[in-house]
Amino acid sequence: MNIKELNPDSSPQAAFGARLRAAREALGLTQEALGEQMGYSGTHLSSVETGRKSPTLRLARSADMALGTGDAFERAWREIRHGSLLEGFPEYVGYEGRAVEIRLYNIGIIPGLLQTPEYARVLADSAVRRGAITQEHADERVSFLAERQSALVRTRPPMVFVTMDESCIRRPIGGSAVMDGQLARLVEFAELPNTLLQVAPFDIGERRTFDLPVNLLTLSDRSVICYAESQAQGHLDRESVSVLPMLTAYHQLQAEALSQAASVAMINEVRKGTP
Fold it and tell me: How confident is the model at residue 6, as a pLDDT?
């Protein structure tokens, strides 16, 4: 029988497949026998073990149950899932879902929590065409974003403050239909009782307090967490000595930005094609 050699160091997906094969063989199970216990065909498990198919959360949990491995395969699946995310971001998202206040600042791109599925898909697919991520990672990014957004729809939703650079609404992404839908989403967001949307116009010039995207979370104990990222790295900070100045800078930016009414008016002008 031809058994394909695996290189578990080549990717998290390959490591998952190698671990699945090792656990199965340790119990003396064939792919067909394990597949029957898990609710999958032997052929499907073979594709996962050799890295030809990506595991799903359901498969990972089924493997843990059938093999008695606790949550080892579920944790391995989450490593794959977060493989295209910047360092620190998965941890940040864990706090985001529990925050009582969320403050966001973005340049050039609409903040993820406000993106429509169509807008998010265009960005993810563009990264695939550039060779920056795989199609599987692109799909994970879009589904992960949908989960983040749904986690904020709860009985007592957080207060969400969004200040975005004017470039976010001026930069065309995905064509006129995608942009019109995205800008309409921003207007809907501004109408919610627990939100505040402001545009920081180009003409504030040097009074703009941030040069990179910044996320600030206030937790139920009133502690504040800051997450900031560059093109290649994200950083989560919980130290008040460095986080509180960021919060001050955010408030200073809000003071320079347009009011929510003026911001919505600008967004509607952009939708109409007004310069």
Answer: 58
